[in-house]
Amino acid sequence: MSFSRRDFLTTAVVGSVSLGLQPEASAQSGGGKRPIIVCAGNGYDYLEEAYTFLKNGGDTLDAALKVVKGPEDDPNETSVGLGGIPNEEGVVELDACCMHGPTRRAGSVGGVRNIKNVSLVAKAVMEHTGHVMLVGEGAERFAVAMGFPRENLLTEKARKIWLLWKEYHSIGDWWGPGISDPKWNAPVKGTPQAQLWQIKYQRLEEIAANLGIDPEWRASAIHKVLFPPTGTIHCSAANEKGEVSGCTTTSGLAYKLPGRVGDSPIIGAGCYTDQDVGSAGATGSGEENIKIAGAHTIVENMRHGMSPQEAGMDALKRIVRNYNNDMSKLQYMDMTYYILRKDGAYAGVSLWDGYSEHEPHKIAVHDGTRRAEKTVALMKGYSQDYPPALGLPK
Ligand code: ASP
Q1: What is the side-by-side order of every strand in the sheet holding 271-274?
Q2: Among 5, 35, 145, 180, fewest CB within 10 Å belongs to which?
Q3: What is the pTM of this model?
Q4: Taking 90 as the threshold, does the pLDDT of residue 191 lie above it?
Q5: Residue 89: CB partners within 8 Å, gap ≥ 6?
Q6: Which architecture characterizes domain 10-153+229-377 according to CATH?
């Protein structure tokens, strides 16, 4: 069997939050360098140009938007903008928001179809309406009125991954080859779990081949079907004067229910900026982040004197608290915060170290030197793919 399953965390998980704080955490209570841009790891490639723009006097929000536009335009980035994995009906629905510190304004859009650069639409809501948030069809029509082109956001790659997901679930519905298919076999009672997985995996490989999914990315497509992925980009920027702004954009959870809006476009959850304090944003389990108003909580924590890292850790602990420290549930969630105080101090913090040893959570930073740094994790170990797949061999 060739697909890679995230490592089980039997050895790595700690049973209590208080044990999970890493001693090497570099809590920055003093200021950092300015100008500075921080973002999720998928923004790394776009930092150079945005930093030059910011250093030459460009606006902080425009600099942050330059970073997130990169993944929005990239058809191979399956979690943001063009090429995002669609909802359960095969339609790409995007969420985004932004906050401009110097003018203390915000804009946001949720569940937008057919428009690629939703972060810029969020900015247009902020600048060209008396509202803060537009959703669905209204947001799309507004975008078109503002001159954004309507385009098909569903790439062939994302469509095939979605179709594979549909057909894989054909045991429970009418999608995919049915009982008349020569390869259909009735389930045999008492088959061991591992063998069942092997059968399921072979079936997935066959369907993937039939759908014309390239062998090169077949294993990754299958992984995306078994464990619907998340992915998003947040970016915050501060200029030399200490002006701050932030924005977040995403295609949200793969195969979500149509109309589902995550944390990314929610001002105070996916992004929050206060010119007096700083800016913060999030990627990860959106539903969990909404319940603790993550980005707002972090900015308020900094206002009351916490360092960026302490502020982020406190927000993560609230997620843990919402589940009464129940690791049997928390192992299936993850959350990363990107935090920038207006003096340039910053932190990247996450619930877990990453998805696996090879996929640690990262914050990308440019303050004159571009780099990607591992986040500081509240709990040691790796989050688990969801939904649980008991008996799945490595
Ligand atoms: N937070 C995003 C959402 O829930 C997903 C992600 O960041 O991966 O839509």
Answers
A1: 271-274, 278-284, 335-341, 346-350, 376-377
A2: 180
A3: 0.89
A4: no
A5: 258
A6: 4-Layer Sandwich (3.60)
Give rounded-to-5 percent helix, strand, coil for the chain. Answer: 35, 20, 45
Helix (H) or strand (E) holding 292: helix 286-292
Residue nearest atom 7 of ligand 1, based on CA coordinates: 283
Query: Does position 2 have pLDDT exceeding 60, yes or no?
Result: no
Q: What is the pLDDT of residues 60-79, one digit of tens each?
A: 999 999 999 999 999 999 99
**Residue 338, beta-bridge partner list:** 281, 348
| Beta strands 376-377 and 346-350, pairing class | parallel
**Residues that are catalytic:** 232
Contact residues of ligand 1, CB 6 A cut-off: 230-232, 250, 252-253, 262-264, 283-284, 286
Convert the pLDDT of each residue in 3-34 to its tens digit.
333 433 333 343 334 333 333 334 455 688 99
Task: For residue 384, give the DSSP letter.
Answer: P
Nearest CA to ligand 1 atom 4: 286
Q: 16 C-alpha vs ligand 1 centroid, how far in Å?
A: 25
Instruction: Tell me the Ramachandran region of residue 111: left when phi exceeds 0, alpha when psi lies from -120 to 50, beta otherwise.
Output: left
- What was the pLDDT predicted at 138? 98
- Over range 134-154, report the average pLDDT: 98
Q: Whose CA is nearest to atom 1 of ligand 1?
A: 286
